[in-house]
Amino acid sequence: MILQRVRNAIKRGLIFSRHAKFEMATEGIFINDVKEALKKVELVEDYPEDPRGHSCLLLGLTKTKRPIHMVCSPRAEGLIIITVYEPSLYEWETNYKTRRRRK
């Protein structure tokens, strides 16, 4: 199961992509926010066929209950954080796990 692989990879360390660092800076999301959100995450989408390697979209909350989406990939060296952002209610339902249907 991908969530167990993610949890195991977290123990080995977090590796932030350049894109993730850029998005975090743009959105005002700090490394500690990501660490806090990863403590109790929910799987939103699984991407087993991702050309970069098996990855997934996770939802977690910061200490202040701010929702954070993280696309990540568990690897031998740790958890690769591909991107991080705050989900928009324009694109996501209020549970932040269901994409809104475009009319």
Q: Overview of this structure, please?
A:
The protein is of the alpha+beta class and 103 residues long. The protein has one domain. It has three helices and five strands. The protein has a five-stranded mixed beta sheet. Strand 2 and strand 3 form a beta hairpin. The relative contact order is 0.22.
Number of domains: 1
- Ranges with pLDDT <50 over ≥5 residues? none
Portion in helices: 25-40%
Q: Based on DSSP secondary structure assignment, what is the total number of beta strands? A: 5
Strand content of the residues, in percent? 25-35%
Mean pLDDT: 95
* Subunit arrangement of the protein: single chain
Distance between the termini: 34 Å
What is the C-alpha radius of gyration, as a whole number of Å?
A: 13 Å
Distinct helical segment count: 3
> What structural category do the secondary elements indicate?
alpha+beta
Largest sheet: 5 strands, mixed
The secondary-structure element order is: HEHHEEEE
The strand line-up of the biggest sheet is 1-5-4-3-2
Shape: globular
Short description:
The protein has 103 residues and is of the alpha+beta class. 28% of the residues lie in helices and 32% in strands.
Please describe the topology of this protein.
Layout: H1 2-12, E1 14-16, H2 18-27, H3 31-38, E2 42-47, E3 55-61, E4 67-75, E5 78-85
Parallel strand pairs: 1-5
Antiparallel strand pairs: 2-3, 3-4, 4-5
